Amino acid sequence: MERVVGKARLTLVQGDITRQKVDVIVNAANPGLMGGGGVDGAIHAAGGPAILEECKAIVARQGSLPAGQAVLTTGGRLPARYIIHTVGPVWRGGDQGEPETLASAYRESLRLAVSRGLKTVAFSSISTGVYGYPVELAARVCLQEAARFLREEGGVEEVRMVLFSSGTMRAFQQALEELMPSPQRWEAPTFVWHVVSLTIVSPTGEARGDEAPRKSVRGRAGRRIDRGRCAILRNGT
Ligand code: APR
Question: Are 197 and 114 in the same domain?
Fold first, then answer.
């Protein structure tokens, strides 16, 4: 599923973020940046020890990473060149600033990508696993912030949401459809309903198979059509 926003593409794919061939992938990390379970564990396992080394150096330099902020490391052995590590909010009921912190995690990650000239960015669904953020709510915050960023700030070519499970994928699809409805498509029943039939009555009334020329004929709804005139009738009228 895809939408064009500004000059960029906003895409949803179901899959494994460690396999994405993009400039940078975004990890759902914790403030200590020491790896963990979920997507964080998968990224460190697939990318190798160089990632943890850089994470340790960052924490030694600037301390632990507050929620809503982002830092960049190598992608190690991953197909992606770099990893942005961001920390989402732990869900505490929704009135502890969770939406703002989650939006900040996406925004700061995108700003970091742009500042490093990285054009294709793949995100995991931040906070919706161990941190317990309800995915339907998180999907809306994520897509709203990504779309706002692409419209108002820009600088990337693709924001790709990589959703691991079919349930997460469905939640994001629904949120995207609500936020940016797909353009009206020509589907068969719609087409038939809207098609306009053109009935041409010839000057001699031959269109109705009349033997003798008639002055007028009647459309299916009984509307009179004078000889030598055209009528456009809606199907079913
Ligand atoms: N590719 C893409 N998405 C994945 C992958 C993967 N390989 N593995 C898991 N996910 C998905 C989960 O299904 C979930 O939808 O990532 C989403 C985020 O879940 P978590 O990884 O649990 O992240 P989060 O909820 O932000 O919790 C962060 O978990 O492992 C720890 O160190 C991490 O403490 C931090 C916490």
Answer: no
Percent of the chain with pLDDT over 90: 76
- Residue corresponding to tokens 């990893």: 83
Token couple for 36: 């963990």
pLDDT at 214 over 80: no
Mean pLDDT over 166-176 rounds to 98
Same domain assignment for residues 99 and 160 = yes
Which residue in the list 23, 40, 210, 226 is annotated as catalytic?
Answer: 40
Residues 116 and 211 in one domain: no
Q: Which protein residue has the closest C-alpha to ligand 1 atom 24?
A: 127
C-alpha 28 – ligand 1 centre gap (Å): 6
- Residue 174 shares a structural domain with residue 197: no
| Mutation pick for ligand 1 pocket among 13, 27, 84, 124 (CB with most ligand atoms within 8 Å) | 124
Give the Cβ contact number of residue 90 at 10 Å. Answer: 15
- 199, 225 contact by CB (below 8 A): yes
Q: Is 90 exceeded by the pLDDT of residue 232?
A: no
Q: Which residue has the tokens 């994001």?
A: 172
* 41 and 79, same domain (yes or no): yes
pLDDT above 90: residue 124: yes
Write the pLDDT tens digit of every residue in 184-201. 544 455 554 554 444 444
Where in the sequence is the domain holding 210, given as residue range(s)? 187-237
Indicate whether 39 and 62 sit together in one domain. yes
Q: Dihedrals φ, ψ of 167, to 5°?
A: -65, -40
Same-domain pairing of 86 and 169: yes
